[in-house]
Amino acid sequence: MDAVDAVELPPLLPEPAANDLRLEAVMAALAEPLRMTIARKLLLDSDEFDHPCGWFGFDRPKSSLTHHFKVLREAGVIHQRQYGLERRSRLRVDDLNDRFPGLLDLIAATESR
Amino acid sequence: MDAVDAVELPPLLPEPAANDLRLEAVMAALAEPLRMTIARKLLLDSDEFDHPCGWFGFDRPKSSLTHHFKVLREAGVIHQRQYGLERRSRLRVDDLNDRFPGLLDLIAATESR
DNA sequence: GTAGTAGTACGAAAATACTCGTACAAGTTG
DNA sequence: CAACTTGTACGAGTATTTTCGTACTACTAC
C-alpha cells in the first residue's frame, strides 16, 4: 500500500450502489430546480474535490439546503462525505455516465434559466 | 394543396411549444413510474399512429390514466389529439430529440423493472 | 330514442414533498 | 472551558401530487 495514496478519506454517507440507481429516482431528484442547479454546478464549475454546501452560495435557510443535498444523495446523484464538521458533496460522474450515458451531457447542455 | 395529404386531423390539445420545454418539467413528468412506462412504450412499441389510452393496457382506474396523460402532455412529452370520443397520444419524438438530445435514448436504454 | 361503450371532468381524500424555525453537534479560537 | 462558526436533525406547516369514485359526454348499435 502506497502511503502517499493512503489519504484518510472520511467514509461515504449511505447511498445506493451504482447498480441500484433508478432512472425515475434520479429524474425525480433533478426535477427540483434548486437540485438541478446543484448538480449542474458540480458538473460544470467543480474541480476534483468535494464541496461543502456553503461553496454553492445559495441564499436559502441552511436546513432547506441540507434537505436537498440529502435527496440528491439518496437518489444516487451525489456522494457525501463527513469531513469533521462539514458534509461535502461530489457528483457521481462515473456511476451516472455508466448507468445513464448521456444524462450528464443533457444537464450540461441545458441552460439553467 | 394535395387532397391525399389533406387528412382531417383533429387539433392538438394545449401543449407547450417546443422552445418552451423545460428539462426539469420533463423530468418531473418522467419521474413517475407509470408515466415513464407510457413514454417508453410509445417510444419502443409504437408505430407512426396516435394511440388511445386503452392501447396501453394498464389496469388502473380510467380517471387516473387521464390524469397521467395530461401531466405528460402539459410537460411537453406527448401530443394529444381529440379523435371524436377518444384522446389519442403520441410521443413528441422530434421536439424532445431537438431540445434534449439523448434523453429518448436514455429512456429506451433503461429497463423498466 | 335507448342502451351500451370508451373515455374525460370534477372533486375530495390521502400521501408525498418542500420550506424553514429551532435545537443540536463538532470543530476552532482565545 | 466558553464563545463562535458551520453545518445537520427534527418536526410542523403548507403546498403539491397521486389516487380514484362519481358524473358526464360523445359515439355506436339496435
Explain how this protein is built.
Two copies of one chain form a homodimer. Helix content of chain A is 43%, strand content 11%. The radius of gyration of chain A is 14 Å and the shape is globular. A two-stranded antiparallel ribbon of chain A has the order 1-2. The N and C termini of chain A lie far apart (47 Å). Chain A is mainly α. Chain A binds a DNA duplex (30 and 30 nucleotides) through helix 3.
Keyword list:
homodimer; 113 residues; mainly alpha; two-stranded antiparallel ribbon; 5 helices; 2 strands; disordered N terminus; DNA-binding
How is this fold's topology laid out?
2 copies of one chain form a homodimer.
Chain A: H1 23-30, H2 33-45, H3 62-75, E1 78-83, E2 86-91, H4 93-99, H5 103-109
Antiparallel strand pairs in A: 1-2
Chain A binds a DNA duplex (30 and 30 nucleotides) through residues 32, 52-54, 60-68, 70-71, 84-87.
Instruction: Give the largest chain-chain interface (CB within 8 Å).
Output: A-B, 21 and 21 residues
Which residues of chain A sit in consecutive blocks of at least 5 with pLDDT less than 50? 1-6
Q: Please tell me the overall pLDDT of chain A.
A: 88
Strand line-up of the largest beta sheet of chain A: 1-2
Helix content of chain A: 40-55%
User: Nearest-angstrom radius of gyration of chain A?
Assistant: 14 Å
Query: Strand percentage of chain A, roughly?
Result: 5-15%
- Backbone structural class of chain A: mainly alpha
Characterize the quaternary organization of these chains: homodimer
